[in-house]
């Protein structure tokens, strides 16, 4: 993310804009502009070489009016408190717009996970859990995998929490492996939900999805399953994906004019989403600059990586052919860039609507953990399709009713639901 863009300030600006439109009173604004609780811990870890290192860890709990805090745990070398704060706000709105009974939270550890062995990652993850376990729980705060973390790490977290609390508690995290209380369908849920939103948008815009083209930024879990579902469900063509190369310390776009094969690319991608350039090139992929995805002539643009990727400085490089921007990442577009997108009449599916498939499926996982009864993958994805379709159409309906931008409409739906719960609970 660009150094000049503060993600928390962006999240607050987006909130303030809609608070003005809804004429929210000052007490409610003061409550919602800032998180309810914030934690900063220092985690000592004995490394494999015997050295003791100290890592900074964060957990931010924004709002739990609708239910327990919910949000991922990132292992990221450039993590900041403000990034985690911003993501916790967006999680509150994401859960609310999806209409699941959860609130917003987020966590992060300042570390490059690619520089750690599996044993070092486990020690770091368990150390984080030990310092904060009393503030987690199925009815308190439920983390999940995020950038730099995965299902195995959630299993370690669940095990550490269970040992400390004295009882087996699978519901303390979601995104677990299927063999340890995880839900079928969870791995592809976010990407699947992105494509459901794109499908619903195309219906509203009168676009036949067959043969449409897309460019995707990123090639982590969300981007991978967005690509596969776009091709398989919509019969569209994905022209490129991109990834960060931790060896070269730069990003690249992997392009094929007639469409990429995401399954092949997944077969030459490591656990952190880095594609093998040599093997890709040998199999006919053009390797372009990391920013090339943004300016390709495609129908759908899908930022699925980091915050702050579409800015005032680069928004005008977006092709005139683009009809839809689907924000699979959190906070990929700045408020200044939003104004240009509006003027160009590009249909935008805002982040916390577009990517709420993951938290919706996490909610399904929690329900299955509580019931100790697990659903088939078809049942999970069918319920997810229904939930995502309803969420999209509730936001689209608000946009039409109030004649507002889709991002503003999503905030309106989400904020109204949270404020209603706060008032009913007597908080304001």
TrEMBL record:
<dbReference type="InterPro" id="IPR033922">
    <property type="entry name" value="NAD_bind_Glu_DH"/>
</dbReference>
<feature type="active site" description="Proton donor">
    <location>
        <position position="106"/>
    </location>
</feature>
<dbReference type="InterPro" id="IPR046346">
    <property type="entry name" value="Aminoacid_DH-like_N_sf"/>
</dbReference>
<feature type="domain" description="Glutamate/phenylalanine/leucine/valine/L-tryptophan dehydrogenase C-terminal">
    <location>
        <begin position="183"/>
        <end position="426"/>
    </location>
</feature>
<dbReference type="InterPro" id="IPR006096">
    <property type="entry name" value="Glu/Leu/Phe/Val/Trp_DH_C"/>
</dbReference>
<dbReference type="InterPro" id="IPR036291">
    <property type="entry name" value="NAD(P)-bd_dom_sf"/>
</dbReference>
<dbReference type="InterPro" id="IPR014362">
    <property type="entry name" value="Glu_DH"/>
</dbReference>
<feature type="binding site">
    <location>
        <position position="362"/>
    </location>
    <ligand>
        <name>substrate</name>
    </ligand>
</feature>
<keyword id="KW-0560">Oxidoreductase</keyword>
<dbReference type="GO" id="GO:0000166">
    <property type="term" value="F:nucleotide binding"/>
</dbReference>
<dbReference type="GO" id="GO:0006538">
    <property type="term" value="P:L-glutamate catabolic process"/>
</dbReference>
<dbReference type="InterPro" id="IPR033524">
    <property type="entry name" value="Glu/Leu/Phe/Val_DH_AS"/>
</dbReference>
<feature type="binding site">
    <location>
        <position position="221"/>
    </location>
    <ligand>
        <name>NAD(+)</name>
    </ligand>
</feature>
<comment type="similarity">
    <text>Belongs to the Glu/Leu/Phe/Val dehydrogenases family.</text>
</comment>
<feature type="binding site">
    <location>
        <position position="190"/>
    </location>
    <ligand>
        <name>NAD(+)</name>
    </ligand>
</feature>
<protein>
    <recommendedName>
        <fullName>Glutamate dehydrogenase</fullName>
    </recommendedName>
</protein>
<feature type="binding site">
    <location>
        <position position="94"/>
    </location>
    <ligand>
        <name>substrate</name>
    </ligand>
</feature>
<feature type="site" description="Important for catalysis">
    <location>
        <position position="146"/>
    </location>
</feature>
<dbReference type="GO" id="GO:0004352">
    <property type="term" value="F:glutamate dehydrogenase (NAD+) activity"/>
</dbReference>
<dbReference type="InterPro" id="IPR006095">
    <property type="entry name" value="Glu/Leu/Phe/Val/Trp_DH"/>
</dbReference>
<feature type="binding site">
    <location>
        <position position="70"/>
    </location>
    <ligand>
        <name>substrate</name>
    </ligand>
</feature>
<dbReference type="Pfam" id="PF02812">
    <property type="entry name" value="ELFV_dehydrog_N"/>
</dbReference>
<dbReference type="InterPro" id="IPR006097">
    <property type="entry name" value="Glu/Leu/Phe/Val/Trp_DH_dimer"/>
</dbReference>
<keyword id="KW-0547">Nucleotide-binding</keyword>
<dbReference type="Pfam" id="PF00208">
    <property type="entry name" value="ELFV_dehydrog"/>
</dbReference>
<keyword id="KW-0520">NAD</keyword>
């Amino acid at each position: 993310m660009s150094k000049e863009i503060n993600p928390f300030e962006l999240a607050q600006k987006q909130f303030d804009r809609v608070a003005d439109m809804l004429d929210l009173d000052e007490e409610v604004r003061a409550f919602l502009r800032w998180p309810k609780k914030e934690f900063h811990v220092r985690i000592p870890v004995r490394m494999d070489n015997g050295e003791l290192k100290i890592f900074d860890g964060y957990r931010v709990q924004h709002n739990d009016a609708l239910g327990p805090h919910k949000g991922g745990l990132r292992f990221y070398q450039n993590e900041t408190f403000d990034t985690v704060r911003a993501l916790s706000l967006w999680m509150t709105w994401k859960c609310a717009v999806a209409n699941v009974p959860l609130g917003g939270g987020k966590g992060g550890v300042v570390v490059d996970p690619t520089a750690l062995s599996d044993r070092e990652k486990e020690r770091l993850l368990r150390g984080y859990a030990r310092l904060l376990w009393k503030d987690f729980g199925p009815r308190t705060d439920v983390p999940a995998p995020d950038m730099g973390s995965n299902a195995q790490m959630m299993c370690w977290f669940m095990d550490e929490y269970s040992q400390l609390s004295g009882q087996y508690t699978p519901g303390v995290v979601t995104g677990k492996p299927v063999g340890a209380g995880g839900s079928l369908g969870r791995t592809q849920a976010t990407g699947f939900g992105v494509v459901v939103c794109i499908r619903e948008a195309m219906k509203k815009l009168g676009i036949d999805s067959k043969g449409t083209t897309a460019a995707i930024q990123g090639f982590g879990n969300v981007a991978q399953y967005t690509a596969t579902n776009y091709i398989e469900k919509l019969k569209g063509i994905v022209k490129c994906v991109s990834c960060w190369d931790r060896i070269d310390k730069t990003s690249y776009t992997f392009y094929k004019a007639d469409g990429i094969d995401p399954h092949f690319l997944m077969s030459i991608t490591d656990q952190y989403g880095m594609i093998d350039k040599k093997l890709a090139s040998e199999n006919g992929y053009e390797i372009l600059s990391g920013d090339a995805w943004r300016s390709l002539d495609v129908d759908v643009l899908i930022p699925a990586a980091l915050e702050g990727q579409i800015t005032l400085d680069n928004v005008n490089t977006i092709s005139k052919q683009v009809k839809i921007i689907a924000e699979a990442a959190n906070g990929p577009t700045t408020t200044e860039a939003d104004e240009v997108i509006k003027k160009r009449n590009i249909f935008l599916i805002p982040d916390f609507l577009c990517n709420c498939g993951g938290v919706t499926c996490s909610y399904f996982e929690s329900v299955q953990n509580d019931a100790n009864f697990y659903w088939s993958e078809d049942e999970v994805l069918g319920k997810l399709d229904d939930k995502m379709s309803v969420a999209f159409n509730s936001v689209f309906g608000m946009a039409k009713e109030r004649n507002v931008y889709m991002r503003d409409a999503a905030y309106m739906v989400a904020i109204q639901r949270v404020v209603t719960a706060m008032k009913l609970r007597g908080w304001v």
